[in-house]
Specification:
By secondary structure, this protein is an alpha+beta fold. 38% of the residues lie in helices and 19% in strands. The protein has one domain: 3-Layer(aba) Sandwich (Glutaredoxin). The chain has a 4-stranded mixed beta sheet, sandwiched between helices. The protein is globular and about 45 Å long.
């Protein structure tokens, strides 16, 4: 089993939430989830971290990673679309499944009048653009990268 298929089972720092996005290498929905996670982490670095799992092929993502990720995050479904997202806190893992669910979480979590929260909610409520839009492959230097990006 390639190393990149192993989920990082490292607990998040106390008081932080880790936003996790796993995807096949080219996916406009995953690119949108990636951009949302990055936006949240950059706006609230003392509260959020990110982890990304990127795979080069559809079969590698669907057949090898998704079953492990679903089990790893405790999500009971046959989720096989890209991306698969979940949150991790010191209390445990909270599966969100696809881009739509991580966007719903963001829209419900970042309610408020300040400009940063409004920007996050507006982005979360926007449908991802079809190609040529933001692709995960353009953000990560190579498939299998995990960890917080600079």
């Amino acid at each position: 089993m390639p190393e990149c298929l192993e989920c990082v089972d490292k607990p998040p720092p106390e008081g932080k939430t880790v936003i996790c996005v796993a995807s096949r290498a080219i996916s406009h929905n995953a690119g949108h989830a990636f951009d949302l996670a990055k936006m949240i982490q950059e706006a609230y670095p003392s509260e959020y971290e990110t982890r990304y799992y990127v795979f080069k092929s559809e079969p590698q993502y669907k057949e090898e990673f998704c079953p492990k990720a679903v089990k790893f995050a405790g999500h009971q479904s046959d989720h096989k679309t890209s991306p698969f997202c979940w949150l991790e806190t010191t209390s445990g893992k909270v599966p969100k499944a696809g881009r739509d669910r991580i966007c719903e979480w963001a829209a419900e979590t970042f309610v408020g009048d300040d400009a940063t929260k409004k920007k996050i909610v507006a982005f979360a409520n926007t449908m991802p653009k079809k190609p040529p839009s933001s692709f995960v492959a353009f953000h990560c230097p190579k498939p299998g990268i995990t960890g917080t990006l600079p």
